[in-house]
Amino acid sequence: MSLRGEELRLDGQEFDPNITGSITSATLVRAMDEATSLELVVNDPDMRLLLSGALTRPGKPSKRQDGLKAAAWDRFARARLSLDGYSFTLAGNEGRYDTTPFETALIFEDTVATLMRLRSEAVKASRGDRTRAEFVGMLVSRALKGGNFPFSRADRFYSPQAGQKQKIKQPEESDREKGINPNKKLTVKGVRIDAEQRKNLETGLAVCDALRSGERATLAWIVAVIQESTVRNLTGGDRDSSGILQVRKSTAVTIKPQTVYDPRTGNMRGSVYRDDTGRIAPGSLDPRDVKAVTRVFLLKGFWGKGGAIKIATDNPDMEPGDIAQDVQGSGHPEAYHQWTEEAEKILEAWGGAGTVSTLRESYEFRAGGRRNGTAQNYYEDSGNLAQDVRWRRFVDLNRLWFVNDEWLFSRRPIFVIDGEDGPRGLADQGLIGGPAYQVDVGLPLSEIRQQCFLPRWGGPPGGVVEYVNFGPLTGRWLIWSNQQDLTAPDEVSTLTLRRPEPTKAEPAPSTRTTVRTESRPEAGTLRAEIVRLAKAAYADRARYRYLQKRPMNKTIFPDDKVSIIKMDCSEFVTKVYEAAGAEDPNGAGYNGTGYTGTLVANATRTNDPQPGDLCFYGSGPPYGHVGIYIGDGQVIEQGGTPGPLKLKVKYRNDFAGYWKPSVLEGE
Fold first, then answer.
1. pLDDT for the residue 79
2. Second label for 119, Cα 20 to 30 Å away, from 24, 26, 421, 590?
């Protein structure tokens, strides 16, 4: 049996005629989910092929295994084969020399696929920078760069949609707001809350979250509304008081115009007061405006002692009931304390003192590197990138295709099979019998197996075959695979045909829902002192210069007002912590050492940063830069001369995240 030996070359040389004449089978498989492969089975009774050296590359032991015989390290070579000008590379070799007839099977695959399997360097790209198809094209280009292969790099990738941006799926979990589950068994003054009370609580608690009021100030508001109105927006009360906090018209305070809610329009506007006739008097507070009175309760208070946030911050040991009394000025100062337990259960049902935010992470295409402890390569990852959106990735005729079924299906059929004349007419069309097909329960006809006579390289994967006058098979089908016996006189092809499948949208950006509980650090706490000192250094920033040196300065807050202090970012963090009375965040006992690596090693990453935590920048760990988070999305860091600087946390594109130093655990 022969395979036109003049077309079959191994490593640039024609096969030995005797070996060529010993080929017992040659199967060419071209499939839509794989690379084109060629399997040659060679009868090798004298082991001429095995011992020829064509399948072997010499190896050598590693330094750790010096002394072992080098012959033990000979390996099967990645021999190349050329057939009709197309390049294949040896991907597998199976031999049977234990029984006669001695033979070996050589499995070759398209060289483009092999070269992509050999590349595993990690690479990624943002979906905003390039399309999925363009990213796969970049993988092909990288795999072929600088390679020694018997074809030009040009035109080795094809995707008709390369520059077209595809529809992106919406995140399954959209941004959501906090709320109190109506099935939650909560009480107000011992009676289970109803829909009106729950709505009033949700309205006021949303204001508390927006102002980052903190737990004790929020609890103070809850005990106040329980005591004053049983959480109902009352139309009247004692003398001229009304609303959820029973604010008196005669003593209603004026707050900043831009912070007041107008219930008529639903917009923020100048502070208002609605009188008995329903008229709005600018400059006054509407006691029945739940959002407005809650803001006054938290920010200003009602009788001159200040708002709940400031009172709670300045008095870290004050109970919520006492805070409520200082805000409200009630004639019954002890009344608020009795509702603390109910308030705590309500706040817990709400989700704590904080805001819910859904963080969306940009979607990135990735290939190579290691994931889940396993090395990845460009070829397998290109297939994964196709599966994500139900596209097709296959390698055929030394070209990688990256296309969707819709595009393949729209092309002109390669050939049409007409069943009008029945079985006799099939032979006239070059077919070996009629089609064999499979039906999946509940699904359309899904697969056809058709044998026919085709020339070599006829019937490519992704080609269209059309049946007419064939009952339920009538219509277009895609060639899923073509298995061809190259040693048969007429080169018989066995086609597997499938219906096309719709493309899936680009995956949605990943989302992560978190509850942000950031609050102002209370006076006298370690966090408050860290923030205060960081701000003090920023206020006096003209005296600081940037310099990387060790050991560190004894202090960055000398008593004199003229010394110039030279320090880098990690020393700034370390010395602020030391001056605040914290243990060394580097875990070194303030011995003069430490850098970003020791700071991050002694900290835990957090998605709920509090003032005093650390912000890191760069790639790592260890990271290249660090600063102190001071709250409200701002960081103070020492990054230049003069310094430090106060900036938005994400002022750099390489912001890595927030870390909580272990010395602040429990703070």
1. 78
2. 26
